[in-house]
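Self-study notes.
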Amino acid sequence: MFGFLVAVEILVSILLMVVILMQSSKGGGLAGTFGSSSMGTTFGVRRTADFLSRATTVLASVFIGLALIINFFFLPGSADVGESVIQSGTPTQAPAPVPPISQPAATPDNQTPANGDQAPPTGNPQQ
């Protein structure tokens, strides 16, 4: 039942988008693309606007109604919810901070370090 209602909700939302886009605006809207002249001759200009306005109202009401029905009756309610994970978890100690990695002492360019390795070059390596 949940899947059926979600499918109907998706269908209603698509129809609602189409009906909203079909309404003519100051620039003509999408109604001019689909031949609003034939729709105007079928219903009449005023009746077309009334039909699209009523269709928008009905589809929006159905969309909101279905959303509320799905939310209240088919999604888990607050009665099923117990303690949250944060409330039920045991307090833990934070791990000890890790000391920063120590850098070897800088030596001048013409001297070698005490262990006999070459000193790293100084200055900007990208030059």
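Second protein, same conventions, sequence then structure:
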Amino acid sequence: MNQPTPPTSSANDLSNDPVRWRILAVLLIAIFMSLMSVSVVNVALASIQDALHASQSDIQWVLSGYALTFGVVLVSAGRAGDLMGRGGIFILGAVIFTLASIAAGLAPDAQWLNGARFVQGVGSGFMNPQAVGMIQQYFRGPERGRAFGFFGTAVGVSVAIGPVIGGLLIQLGGLDIGWRLTFLINVPIGVLIIVLALLWFPRPLIHKPKSLEHKGLSSLDPIGALLLGAGVLAVLYPFVGSNATELVWLLLPAGLLLFYLWARWEQWYTQRGYSPMVDLKIFATSSYRNGSIIMTLYFLGMTSIWVLIPLYVQQDLGFSAFEAGMVGIPSALLSAYSAHWAGQRVNHYGRKIVIGGLALAVFGLFASIGVVFLHEYWGVSIWWLLLSLAFFGLGQGSVVSPNQALTLAEVPLAYAGSSGAIMQTGQRIGTSVGIAVITALVFAVRPHSSWAVAVSAGLLAIALVIVLALLVAVKDLRERRVV
């Protein structure tokens, strides 16, 4: 199979060059920064509302606007990186993200802040698929598993540690300045990323492949990008938008129709001899198909935990934002450790590591339900959650990074960015749908029961979703044995 060469030379030129680890360091810092921006803001919402006199709708869009544009641009940005050079698109994303962080931190009102968050999401959506594509490009064999192990560490820690950092910044800066620091903290990090990328990324950062020279804009598949972007927007909006009415939910079937039209367009586009946005043949590869389903289901449940637990300990137990963030620290540290451990061994154990991680996550969830009930009815210390959630953290690190490596193992390098972005889009949809549905379940149960019962219902729903992911992982393992 013919594959395009990397932006400078062949990918093999860097297979034994220490520069690839410096490239990875830049990518991981960026991933950590962009994903932390999702969770760090959670604990600052009350301060933002008071400082800017924002409505509840405005506050919801502080979270939702970022997630929406992030999800919409992922695949288009991934394909642009595949064709035009991943390094250049990555740096462009970092510049956009950093400037938007400055705008958010200095926002005079809620409308300005939400506009900046939309732009932040675009910058993050530009960076993330390039990171996946560049790991595919510059790492081979067991080293790729290690690289994705570090990637998984960045993902897991960023989600769990965000509320801790947010709580600390609020405490240091006070209610008026603290929330601004949750955005401005990205600025020195973003500048560092841009400088290091310019110093360490191979040259040229942007190139023009022969396919693009001959076919012009058509190689970027603008119609495919528009159809897919509109489909993602239509599916995500009812779940992230505020004050959704019955009419808004009609966007869901419209989104599914747009996905169908996109798939048919990609087939027709390929038959005409053009380079499609996504090679749909990758979905015939069981490892990619199953891995993408596992990741979507896992994120459908996983992210909601770090919404429910802080909500429970603050609303019911009176914890401060900083104390609520502390609950996730052991989980974050163990997630970092297990991701590194799993990344070194994924080539040997394969899907068994993912199965073990999912089983640990389910155990951690049921243990957490037990802690909540023991605290409610027998007065057992709620701080036992640190131990129960630690099991979840161990599982998380053993799921995200190995699954990423196994899912993309058979994907052609020419589509590394867009294929990785498809998987990340599934994560974004899973995250948005999961948070909306599971928090709605908790708030539906709450008027008729205690917080303990309501949050346990939410944790049980998360566990059931992760059990589904576990069943898909077992199915994938069996299919691999048959092959």
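Instructor comment on the second fold: Confidence is low (pLDDT under 50) at residues 1-13, 209-216.
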